[in-house]
Amino acid sequence: MPTIQTQAAWAERARAVLPGGGFGNFDAETFIRDGQGSRVRDENGKAYVDLLIGSGPMLLGHGHPEVMEAIAEQLPKGMTFFANNARGVELAEDIVAAVPCAEQVRFVSSGGEADMYAIRLARAFTGRDKIVKFEGGYHGMSAEAQMSLAPSKLANFPQAVPDSAGIPDSVRSEMLIAPFNDAAYIRSLLAEYGAQVAAIIVEPLQRIIPPEPGFLQLLRAECDRYGIQD
Ligand SMILES: Cc1ncc(COP(=O)(O)O)c(C=O)c1O
């Protein structure tokens, strides 16, 4: 039987081996032991309704029977191959069928990585370097994404404020930061910089802020007008 440890004991162990004593995005004193359906339990036995859902991927809840069955069927046949495999092709086909704008799929490990590739692809395709991002929008941990998420100092739009140390000024200077939901601002920003902009990166629902009616459609139209990727 493994020794049962309290959260305080795990926190002490974590501080020794994890920077900041945690995985980086959540309260470092809470340690989830297990989960079933919509509930999780911490190492002290306290139960919670899990609104984090693994930051997204546990959308069907913990231990969903169909997911467990599919995993149990595949596990004895091997888990990851790096090489192409039939299940991956089937998944890509399902995604292309389900997502109207998806013609092909590149699998990556995280949302941040996907956004990083999307930005690089837009730059390669347009031959332009500037990226428009909205203040407060979250797009992962890449250098471009770590701009004006939660700016630590005031700056005039469209100046970007890095959220992390260690990002070269050359990255900051290629980012244009705009206020979310401000149609007039985005129009005037693109009137000035539109021909230099490779992409606008936006969360359709920015954290908990819904888009104003017509705002996303305006971005689409402005992208078309200036040959920008979105
Ligand atoms: C809109 C958005 N983009 C990108 C990311 C980054 O995804 P990941 O944590 O898988 O890198 C997140 C994660 O919460 C997100 O909400």
Provide a descriptive summary of the structure in words.
There is one protein chain. With 230 residues, the chain is of the alpha/beta class. It folds into 2 domains: 1-78, Aspartate Aminotransferase, domain 1; 111-226, Aspartate Aminotransferase, domain 2 (3-Layer(aba) Sandwich). Helix content is 33%, strand content 11%. The chain is built from 7 helices and 6 strands. The chain has helices at residues 7-17, 65-74, 86-98, 111-126, 169-172, 183-193, 215-226; strands spanning 32-36, 39-42, 47-49, 130-134, 175-178, 197-201. It has a 3-stranded antiparallel beta sheet with strand order 1-2-3, with no helix packed on it. The protein has a 3-stranded parallel beta sheet with strand order 5-4-6. Strand 2 (39-42) and strand 3 form a beta hairpin. The longest helix is centred in the middle third of the chain and has 16 residues, at 111-126. It is globular. The termini are far apart. Pyridoxal-5'-phosphate (PLP) is lined by residues 55, 110-112, 115, 138-140, 203.
Features:
230 residues; Aspartate Aminotransferase, domain 2; globular; three-stranded parallel β-sheet; alpha/beta; 2 domains; binds pyridoxal-5'-phosphate; Aspartate Aminotransferase, domain 1; 33% helix; three-stranded antiparallel β-sheet; 11% strand
Short structural description:
Helix content is 33%, strand content 11%. By secondary structure, it is of the alpha/beta class.
As for the number of domains, it is 2
Series of secondary-structure elements, N-terminal to C-terminal: HEEEHHHEHEHEH
Indicate the proportion of strand residues.
5-15%
Helix/strand-derived class? alpha/beta
CATH topology of the largest domain: Aspartate Aminotransferase, domain 2
First-residue to last-residue Cα separation:
53 Å
Q: How many strands, which pairing sense, and closed or not: the largest β-sheet?
A: 3 strands, antiparallel
CATH class category name of the largest domain? Alpha Beta
Poorly predicted regions are: none
The rough form would be described as: globular
Helix content: 25-40%
Number of helices: 7
The whole-angstrom Rg is 21 Å
Whole-number mean pLDDT: 95
Q: Could you tell me which ligands this complex binds, including any ions or cofactors?
A: pyridoxal-5'-phosphate
- The largest beta-sheet arranges its strands as 1-2-3
If classified by CATH, what would the architecture of the largest domain be? 3-Layer(aba) Sandwich
In total, the number of strands is: 6
Instruction: Find the CATH superfamily of the largest domain.
Output: Type I PLP-dependent aspartate aminotransferase-like (Major domain)
